[in-house]
Amino acid sequence: MTALDLRLETDRFGPFTFRLGLDPGALALPLARVEDAWKMFSASPLAQVANQLQREVLVQSVFGTNTIEGATLTEEETRRALDADPGKVQAEQEVRVRNIKAAYDLAVRSAETDGWRLDVDYIRAVHAEICRDLPHPDNRPGLFRDNPKERPTVVGDQDHGGIYRPPQYRRDIDRLMDGLVDWHQGLMDAGISPLLRAPLVHLYFELIHPFWDGNGRVGRVLEATLLRQAGYRYAPFALAKFYQEQIHRYFALFNHCRKAAGRDEPFPNQDFVTFTLEGLRVVIERLHGRVNELVTVLLFDAVLRRELETGKINPRQYAIVRHLMDSGRALSPAELRLEPWYQTMYAHLTEKTRQRDLRGLLDTGFLGPGADGRLRPGFVGNRRAG
After folding, report:
1. CA nearest to 254, candidates 181, 304, 202, 299
2. Which of 84, 156, 194, 202 is the most exposed place for a label (fewest CB within 10 A)?
């Protein structure tokens, strides 16, 4: 035990210890890598693309956290559900999307409120948003479990490190949730980095598993809230996509850390926190790259518009390049000719005009053929057109 550990006795679950459980020396390099990535990202021209970046992160994050819990919506279907009128959303999976968005909004408002602190009421409020109007048989938004003996809660599976029975008795859950927020406040008062506090809260929340349903989604929102409060934008929610991509590792680490603590290893939580730091570095670097791509597209579009205004390209040529930019699809010349909008645009023009327009775009570099012969906008990398 250390001064930052908290051991609680429960009525039926036995002793439960919140432990820092980390090796500071081994974490120095992962922490430095996250901070270095964050400094580079923060120095990029975020203001120019903030709205689009925020939208993309929201879609990917909701898709990721929802998919972890078994949802089958694609990323594009998730995007459409987020764009739908909330009052008209009825399908269960679309309701789940709407609810996660509402929980994220609550997280941002809370994290940006002066003096906000993690407490049990906030955790209940997040759960209430996540589980609102869902038809789970035990759906009780904001209420902790109190399992009858004949209906135990069991989490985990053999493929991810085994089965675990979290606390079942309501009074034990209440005591442990109060302990979790008190312990977190102690870590905060002691100056423990939010990059360590946030995954530790995530880990112990999942081990308590206080609600009948929605615990994974709540745990990831709690982690994101603490990171957002510390000034990290975009990345806290983008972590959900990393967890989804690394889903087997993610699930297995909860059992791995629990078993390490049971063996009284000195640093039982090290691997989960290292995993989270790895995820943060990865998503921050991705975000940095995406900002550079978006800014490149903005600059390219500015040049394209200037060339249109000065008459160096005509409206048809502008429309071709803009369509490829907006659709994100690369097309061969033959495929381009089959596009309805393209056929309409050239319906009363000659083949010579078609060829002259396309040759002009290729000669000026506004369009560039890839190795596969497909046409892509001519901005650097052509990654968006894929």
Report:
1. 202
2. 84
The counts of H helices and E strands in the chain are 15, 6
Where does 6-289 sit in CATH, by number?
1.10.3290.10
386 residues of the chain, pLDDT tens digit each = 688 999 999 999 999 999 999 999 999 999 999 999 999 999 999 989 999 999 999 999 999 999 999 899 999 999 999 998 877 777 899 999 999 999 999 999 999 999 999 999 999 999 999 999 998 777 789 999 999 999 999 999 998 989 999 999 999 999 999 999 999 999 999 999 999 999 999 999 999 999 999 999 999 999 999 999 999 999 999 999 999 999 999 999 999 999 999 999 999 999 999 999 999 999 999 999 999 999 999 999 999 999 999 999 999 999 999 999 988 889 999 999 999 999 999 999 999 999 999 999 999 999 988 888 899 998 744 433 33
Residues designated as active site: 209
**pTM, rounded to two decimals:** 0.90
Q: Residue 132: helix, strand or coil by DSSP? A: coil
CA-CA-CA-CA torsion sign (228, 232, 234, 238): negative
Q: How far is CA 334 from CA 180, 326, 330, 355, in A?
A: 62, 19, 12, 12
- Element of type H or E holding 18: strand 16-18
The structural domains of the chain, with segments of one domain joined by +, span: 6-289, 313-377
> What does each C-alpha distance from 268 to 49, 133, 167, 259, 386 come to in angstroms?
41, 38, 20, 8, 42
What is the DSSP track for 30-55?
HHHHHHHHHHHHHTS-GGGTHHHHHH
Is 117 known as a binding-site position?
no
CB proximity list for 193: less than 8 A, separation 6 or greater: 31
Contact at 8 Å (CB) between 170 and 183?
A: no
C-beta separation of 239 from 63 below 8 A: no
Q: Which CATH architecture has domain 313-377?
A: Orthogonal Bundle (1.10)
Establish whether 213 is an annotated binding residue.
Answer: yes
Residue 139 marked as a ligand binder: no
Is 219 known to sit in a ligand binding site? Answer: yes
